[in-house]
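Let us begin with a simple case.
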Amino acid sequence: MQAIQIMSALAQDTRLKVYQLLVERLPAGMTAGEIADSVKMSRNGMSPHFAILSAAGLVSAVKEGRQVIYKAEIKAVEELAAFLGKAVQRAHEETLDSLDW
Protein backbone atom coordinates (compact mmCIF):
# COMPACT_ATOMS: atom_id res chain seq x y z
CA MET A 1 0.00 0.00 0.00
CA GLN A 2 1.18 3.49 -0.82
CA ALA A 3 -0.64 5.51 1.84
CA ILE A 4 1.09 8.80 1.13
CA GLN A 5 0.52 8.51 -2.61
CA ILE A 6 -3.17 7.66 -2.13
CA MET A 7 -3.80 10.47 0.35
CA SER A 8 -1.85 12.96 -1.77
CA ALA A 9 -3.86 12.05 -4.85
CA LEU A 10 -7.15 12.54 -3.03
CA ALA A 11 -6.03 15.71 -1.24
CA GLN A 12 -6.53 17.75 -4.41
CA ASP A 13 -10.13 18.93 -4.90
CA THR A 14 -10.54 17.99 -8.58
CA ARG A 15 -9.08 14.52 -8.12
CA LEU A 16 -11.27 13.88 -5.09
CA LYS A 17 -14.36 14.91 -7.11
CA VAL A 18 -13.30 12.66 -9.99
CA TYR A 19 -12.79 9.71 -7.66
CA GLN A 20 -16.16 10.32 -5.99
CA LEU A 21 -17.87 10.47 -9.41
CA LEU A 22 -16.25 7.23 -10.49
CA VAL A 23 -17.19 5.45 -7.26
CA GLU A 24 -20.80 6.53 -7.81
CA ARG A 25 -20.64 5.12 -11.34
CA LEU A 26 -19.27 1.71 -10.41
CA PRO A 27 -19.07 -0.68 -12.13
CA ALA A 28 -19.73 1.11 -15.44
CA GLY A 29 -17.21 3.95 -15.22
CA MET A 30 -17.20 7.15 -17.25
CA THR A 31 -15.53 8.46 -20.36
CA ALA A 32 -12.85 11.11 -20.10
CA GLY A 33 -15.24 13.59 -21.70
CA GLU A 34 -18.02 12.87 -19.22
CA ILE A 35 -15.63 13.33 -16.32
CA ALA A 36 -14.17 16.54 -17.74
CA ASP A 37 -17.65 17.97 -18.27
CA SER A 38 -18.70 17.00 -14.73
CA VAL A 39 -15.78 18.83 -13.13
CA LYS A 40 -15.83 21.66 -15.67
CA MET A 41 -12.35 21.12 -17.09
CA SER A 42 -10.95 20.47 -20.53
CA ARG A 43 -10.07 16.90 -21.47
CA ASN A 44 -6.43 17.94 -21.84
CA GLY A 45 -6.53 19.52 -18.38
CA MET A 46 -7.71 16.21 -16.95
CA SER A 47 -4.72 14.21 -18.18
CA PRO A 48 -2.40 15.00 -15.25
CA HIS A 49 -5.19 14.21 -12.79
CA PHE A 50 -5.87 10.85 -14.43
CA ALA A 51 -2.13 10.07 -14.34
CA ILE A 52 -1.87 10.82 -10.61
CA LEU A 53 -5.02 8.86 -9.75
CA SER A 54 -3.80 5.92 -11.85
CA ALA A 55 -0.33 5.95 -10.28
CA ALA A 56 -1.95 5.81 -6.84
CA GLY A 57 -3.98 2.76 -7.88
CA LEU A 58 -7.26 4.67 -7.58
CA VAL A 59 -8.34 4.62 -11.23
CA SER A 60 -8.03 2.25 -14.15
CA ALA A 61 -8.57 3.04 -17.81
CA VAL A 62 -9.85 0.77 -20.57
CA LYS A 63 -9.95 1.75 -24.21
CA GLU A 64 -13.28 0.88 -25.82
CA GLY A 65 -13.29 1.79 -29.48
CA ARG A 66 -12.38 5.46 -29.72
CA GLN A 67 -13.13 6.22 -26.07
CA VAL A 68 -11.31 5.61 -22.82
CA ILE A 69 -13.48 4.47 -19.92
CA TYR A 70 -12.19 5.31 -16.46
CA LYS A 71 -13.24 3.25 -13.46
CA ALA A 72 -12.65 3.67 -9.74
CA GLU A 73 -10.47 1.04 -8.13
CA ILE A 74 -11.34 0.50 -4.49
CA LYS A 75 -8.65 -1.95 -3.35
CA ALA A 76 -6.15 0.81 -2.54
CA VAL A 77 -8.76 2.70 -0.51
CA GLU A 78 -9.79 -0.49 1.30
CA GLU A 79 -6.16 -1.10 2.26
CA LEU A 80 -5.76 2.50 3.43
CA ALA A 81 -8.98 2.29 5.46
CA ALA A 82 -7.79 -0.95 7.11
CA PHE A 83 -4.41 0.61 7.93
CA LEU A 84 -6.01 3.73 9.43
CA GLY A 85 -8.57 1.63 11.28
CA LYS A 86 -5.80 -0.38 12.94
CA ALA A 87 -4.03 2.83 13.93
CA VAL A 88 -7.19 4.21 15.52
CA GLN A 89 -7.89 0.92 17.29
CA ARG A 90 -4.36 0.84 18.69
CA ALA A 91 -4.68 4.44 19.89
CA HIS A 92 -7.93 3.58 21.67
CA GLU A 93 -6.33 0.52 23.27
CA GLU A 94 -3.40 2.62 24.48
CA THR A 95 -5.81 5.18 25.95
CA LEU A 96 -7.78 2.47 27.74
CA ASP A 97 -4.60 0.83 29.03
CA SER A 98 -3.47 4.13 30.54
CA LEU A 99 -6.69 4.63 32.52
CA ASP A 100 -6.74 3.77 36.22
CA TRP A 101 -9.83 1.68 36.86
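The second case is a distinct protein. As before, the sequence precedes its C-alpha coordinates.
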Amino acid sequence: MTPTIPVGAKLIVTALDPSLLKRFDILVFKQREQLNCHFFWAWNYDNRVMTRSLKNPLENDLPCPIEDILGKVTNFELKASQKSIIWLKNFINRSF
Protein backbone atom coordinates (compact mmCIF):
# COMPACT_ATOMS: atom_id res chain seq x y z
CA MET A 1 0.00 0.00 0.00
CA THR A 2 2.96 2.29 -0.57
CA PRO A 3 2.90 5.35 -0.64
CA THR A 4 -0.18 5.40 1.62
CA ILE A 5 1.48 3.11 4.15
CA PRO A 6 5.27 3.48 4.29
CA VAL A 7 7.30 0.27 4.37
CA GLY A 8 7.91 -0.69 8.01
CA ALA A 9 5.10 1.48 9.38
CA LYS A 10 3.29 0.29 12.48
CA LEU A 11 -0.38 -0.37 11.84
CA ILE A 12 -3.32 -0.07 14.17
CA VAL A 13 -5.69 -2.86 13.18
CA THR A 14 -9.16 -3.10 14.68
CA ALA A 15 -11.68 -5.91 14.59
CA LEU A 16 -13.81 -5.88 11.48
CA ASP A 17 -17.58 -5.58 11.45
CA PRO A 18 -18.39 -6.79 7.90
CA SER A 19 -21.68 -4.87 7.86
CA LEU A 20 -19.76 -1.58 8.25
CA LEU A 21 -17.20 -2.29 5.53
CA LYS A 22 -17.01 0.42 2.88
CA ARG A 23 -15.10 0.83 -0.36
CA PHE A 24 -11.48 1.95 0.13
CA ASP A 25 -11.25 0.67 3.74
CA ILE A 26 -7.73 -0.73 4.14
CA LEU A 27 -7.77 -4.36 5.29
CA VAL A 28 -5.14 -6.74 6.62
CA PHE A 29 -5.72 -10.31 5.51
CA LYS A 30 -4.02 -13.67 5.07
CA GLN A 31 -3.48 -14.96 1.57
CA ARG A 32 -1.16 -17.77 0.58
CA GLU A 33 0.49 -17.79 4.02
CA GLN A 34 1.32 -14.07 3.77
CA LEU A 35 -0.15 -10.96 5.33
CA ASN A 36 -1.44 -8.40 2.85
CA CYS A 37 -2.73 -4.85 3.12
CA HIS A 38 -5.10 -3.88 0.30
CA PHE A 39 -8.23 -1.80 0.06
CA PHE A 40 -11.77 -3.17 0.03
CA TRP A 41 -13.52 -2.93 -3.34
CA ALA A 42 -16.67 -5.06 -3.21
CA TRP A 43 -18.37 -8.25 -2.11
CA ASN A 44 -18.45 -11.04 -4.69
CA TYR A 45 -21.31 -13.41 -5.47
CA ASP A 46 -20.48 -15.87 -2.67
CA ASN A 47 -19.94 -13.22 0.02
CA ARG A 48 -16.17 -13.13 -0.22
CA VAL A 49 -14.29 -9.88 0.01
CA MET A 50 -12.80 -8.44 -3.17
CA THR A 51 -9.74 -6.30 -2.55
CA ARG A 52 -7.45 -4.32 -4.83
CA SER A 53 -3.93 -2.99 -4.54
CA LEU A 54 -2.67 0.49 -5.32
CA LYS A 55 -0.27 -1.06 -7.82
CA ASN A 56 -3.15 -2.54 -9.81
CA PRO A 57 -6.39 -0.76 -8.86
CA LEU A 58 -8.25 -1.94 -11.96
CA GLU A 59 -8.22 -5.64 -11.13
CA ASN A 60 -9.60 -7.56 -8.19
CA ASP A 61 -7.31 -9.73 -6.11
CA LEU A 62 -8.37 -13.30 -5.46
CA PRO A 63 -11.59 -13.44 -3.41
CA CYS A 64 -10.85 -13.47 0.31
CA PRO A 65 -13.04 -15.36 2.79
CA ILE A 66 -14.15 -13.13 5.66
CA GLU A 67 -12.44 -15.45 8.15
CA ASP A 68 -9.05 -14.64 6.56
CA ILE A 69 -9.43 -10.93 7.26
CA LEU A 70 -7.57 -9.94 10.41
CA GLY A 71 -9.02 -6.45 10.61
CA LYS A 72 -9.23 -2.91 9.32
CA VAL A 73 -6.30 -0.48 9.40
CA THR A 74 -7.39 2.64 11.28
CA ASN A 75 -4.27 4.81 11.36
CA PHE A 76 -3.88 5.10 7.57
CA GLU A 77 -6.42 5.77 4.82
CA LEU A 78 -6.45 6.54 1.13
CA LYS A 79 -6.46 10.25 0.30
CA ALA A 80 -9.45 11.71 -1.52
CA SER A 81 -7.24 12.35 -4.54
CA GLN A 82 -6.20 8.67 -4.65
CA LYS A 83 -9.82 7.56 -4.46
CA SER A 84 -10.80 9.97 -7.25
CA ILE A 85 -8.03 8.73 -9.53
CA ILE A 86 -8.99 5.09 -8.91
CA TRP A 87 -12.67 5.85 -9.61
CA LEU A 88 -11.74 7.68 -12.83
CA LYS A 89 -9.44 4.88 -14.03
CA ASN A 90 -12.17 2.33 -13.39
CA PHE A 91 -14.76 4.44 -15.20
CA ILE A 92 -12.50 4.85 -18.24
CA ASN A 93 -11.55 1.18 -18.22
CA ARG A 94 -15.19 0.11 -18.30
CA SER A 95 -16.21 2.70 -20.91
CA PHE A 96 -13.83 1.62 -23.67
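The chain has a mean pLDDT of 92. The chain has one domain: 13-95.
Keep these points in mind for the review questions at the end of the chapter.
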